[in-house]
């Protein structure tokens, strides 16, 4: 037979755990956020580029190094879904897209990937949010979402 106090502690612990698990799944659904993936590395990720897959799907391959991101400016049509791939050629950098809940690490020898949909026109700033040396504050890039898709 459980002590009353013991029973209350167990009920409280189970309630808090259930709330915690519920809020993880709730946030996953409510934010509709693609979970960040880490991909197997190969040399093709070291070439910074923007690729158009089809009318509304793009891929941007970012290369971070002290102290800039390439491509520095990318143009994307409104309504596009964009896969972002990020790697680094030297030290660990951060990769944060304003207003988009994107928070990746740029790791040498590793590739981080996430998918973002740009439904509103605008200039989306990207900054390094991992201190990486004396030029850290200058590390930024932009995704410019400014023209309607064809
Ligand atoms: Cu950096």
TrEMBL record:
<dbReference type="InterPro" id="IPR001505">
    <property type="entry name" value="Copper_CuA"/>
</dbReference>
<protein>
    <recommendedName>
        <fullName>Cytochrome oxidase subunit II copper A binding domain-containing protein</fullName>
    </recommendedName>
</protein>
<dbReference type="InterPro" id="IPR008972">
    <property type="entry name" value="Cupredoxin"/>
</dbReference>
<feature type="transmembrane region" description="Helical">
    <location>
        <begin position="9"/>
        <end position="28"/>
    </location>
</feature>
<keyword id="KW-0472">Membrane</keyword>
<dbReference type="InterPro" id="IPR002429">
    <property type="entry name" value="CcO_II-like_C"/>
</dbReference>
<feature type="domain" description="Cytochrome oxidase subunit II copper A binding">
    <location>
        <begin position="55"/>
        <end position="150"/>
    </location>
</feature>
<keyword id="KW-0479">Metal-binding</keyword>
<keyword id="KW-0812">Transmembrane</keyword>
<dbReference type="Pfam" id="PF00116">
    <property type="entry name" value="COX2"/>
</dbReference>
<keyword id="KW-0186">Copper</keyword>
<dbReference type="InterPro" id="IPR051403">
    <property type="entry name" value="NosZ/Cyto_c_oxidase_sub2"/>
</dbReference>
<keyword id="KW-1133">Transmembrane helix</keyword>
């Amino acid at each position: 037979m459980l002590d009353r106090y013991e029973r209350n502690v167990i009920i409280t612990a189970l309630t808090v755990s259930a709330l915690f698990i519920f809020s993880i799944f709730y946030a996953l659904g409510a934010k509709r956020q693609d979970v960040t993936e880490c991909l197997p590395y190969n040399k093709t990720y070291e070439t910074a580029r923007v690729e158009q897959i089809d009318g509304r799907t793009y891929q941007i391959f970012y290369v971070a190094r002290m102290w800039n991101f390439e491509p520095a400016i990318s143009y994307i049509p409104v309504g596009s879904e964009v896969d972002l791939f990020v790697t680094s050629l030297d030290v660990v950098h951060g990769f944060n897209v304003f207003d988009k809940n994107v928070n990746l690490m740029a790791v040498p020898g590793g590739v981080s990937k996430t998918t973002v949909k740009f439904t509103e026109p605008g200039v989306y700033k990207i900054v390094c949010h991992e201190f990486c040396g004396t030029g850290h504050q200058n590390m930024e890039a932009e995704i410019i979402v400014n023209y309607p898709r064809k």
